[in-house]
């Protein structure tokens, strides 16, 4: 494993992080908690230190499950969670709403106190705002984050999905170390519009969706129907219609061409896709959701794989055939 520092003053984290969204068991279809627990243990064994979760993943389930799976190994990892997305506890499951007010992010169902209880810990290594809430002054939200850090319940601060102007405003108010954004071969919006701002502000990127939400896993079945509970069944991937009935076949053709390149250079498609994400110097970690230990082991092959100019150009040319890409950042 390789390790990188978030910004110049954040934690040292593994270049590949463990994304825990599937643990919520609501948005990626059914999961096997036993296999997932084995994957968590294997990840720690091979040097993965960053584990990323959120209250919104399964209405708290992902945090609860992860806390139980970590047990005494909590001390061996960098635990990241988020705030600012909430739901009605008496009507689960229910739509999430953005609320980054003091009361909500401390005492709501997605608030810090409930997070610590679910995760069976007394502190988070990184606490970030999940999505920008434009109805609450950033000054209020950043003040709460700083207070939480000063109390010892949080060690480092970050945001997620914050546009360059939003990030610039919040970086002036709080010592942010990361902005977590979607980034993969099918989605370069943040790279093109926000990475330079991150460099300027000394804020590292945590890339989620590194395998394009499964498209780049190399295992997408052209004939299978996604479970109705799977968010991808609606065809949209963070406002990009990559997975619609019209665009998915074209994008799977692109994936087949990427597989050929991966095979030629002696790696799996996920390894190639992760190495492409990790080539960015502003990136701290590439998050991957793993359901079983074998996936953890395969991901390790991305470490040390160099993406030279020739290979980068070839990948860029292949991606010209992708369908459904849009230029606007997700709001």
Instruction: Name the helix and strand elements from N-terminus to C-terminus, one letter apiece.
Output: EEEHEHEEEHHEHEHEHHEHHEHH
**Major beta sheet, specifics?**
8 strands, parallel, barrel
CATH topology (level 3) name: TIM Barrel
The structural class is alpha/beta
What is the 3D shape? Answer: globular
According to DSSP, the number of beta strands is 12
CATH class: Alpha Beta
What's the CATH H-level superfamily name?
NADP-dependent oxidoreductase domain
What is the CA–CA distance across the termini? 34 Å
Low-confidence stretches: none
Helical segment count: 12
Tell me what the structure shows.
- With 331 residues, the chain is α/β, with parallel strands linked by helices.
- It has one domain (3-233, 268-305): TIM Barrel.
- The protein has helices spanning 33-45, 61-70, 102-107, 112-119, 138-151, 164-173, 189-193, 195-201, 248-265, 269-278, 293-299, 309-319; strands at residues 3-5, 12-14, 16-19, 50-52, 78-83, 85-86, 97-98, 124-129, 154-160, 176-182, 204-208, 283-288.
- Strands 3-4-5-8-9-10-11-12 form an 8-stranded parallel barrel, surrounded by 5 helices. Strands 1-2 form a two-stranded antiparallel sheet.
- α1 (33-45) crosses α2 (61-70).
- The longest helix is centred in the last third of the chain and has 18 residues, at 248-265.
- The chain is globular, with a radius of gyration of 19 Å.
- The relative contact order is 0.14.
- The mean pLDDT is 96.
């Amino acid at each position: 494993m390789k390790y990188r520092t978030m910004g110049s003053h954040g934690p040292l984290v593994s270049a590949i992080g463990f994304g825990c969204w599937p643990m919520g068991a609501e948005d990626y279809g059914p999961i096997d908690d036993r296999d997932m627990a084995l994957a968590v243990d294997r990840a720690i064994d091979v040097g993965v230190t960053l584990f990323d979760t959120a209250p919104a993943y399964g209405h708290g389930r992902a945090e609860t499950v992860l806390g139980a799976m970590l047990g005494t190994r909590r001390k061996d990892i960098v635990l990241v969670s988020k705030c600012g997305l909430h739901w009605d506890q008496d009507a689960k499951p229910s739509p999430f709403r953005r609320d980054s007010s003091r009361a909500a992010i401390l005492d709501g169902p997605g608030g810090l106190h409930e997070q610590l209880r679910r995760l069976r810990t007394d502190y988070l290594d990184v606490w970030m705002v999940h999505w920008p809430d434009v109805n609450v002054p950033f000054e209020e939200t950043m003040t709460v984050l700083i207070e939480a850090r000063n109390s010892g319940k949080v060690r480092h601060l970050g945001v997620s999905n914050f546009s360059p102007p939003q990030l610039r405003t919040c970086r002036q108010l709080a010592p942010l170390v990361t902005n977590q954004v979607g980034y993969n071969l099918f989605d370069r919006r943040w790279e093109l519009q926000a990475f330079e701002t991150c460099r300027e502000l000394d804020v590292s990127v945590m890339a989620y969706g590194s395998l394009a939400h499964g498209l780049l896993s190399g295992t997408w079945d052209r004939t299978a129907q996604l479970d109705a509970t799977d968010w991808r069944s609606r065809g949209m991937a963070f406002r990009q219609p990559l997975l619609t009935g019209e665009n998915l076949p074209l994008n799977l053709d692109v994936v087949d061409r990427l597989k050929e390149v991966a095979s030629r250079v002696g790696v799996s498609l996920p390894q190639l896709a992760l190495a492409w994400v990790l080539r960015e110097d502003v990136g701290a970690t590439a998050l991957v959701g793993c359901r079983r230990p074998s996936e953890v082991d395969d991901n390790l092959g991305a470490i040390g794989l160099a993406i030279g100019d020739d290979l980068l150009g070839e990948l860029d040319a292949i991606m010209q055939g992708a369908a459904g890409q849009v230029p606007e950042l997700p709001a």
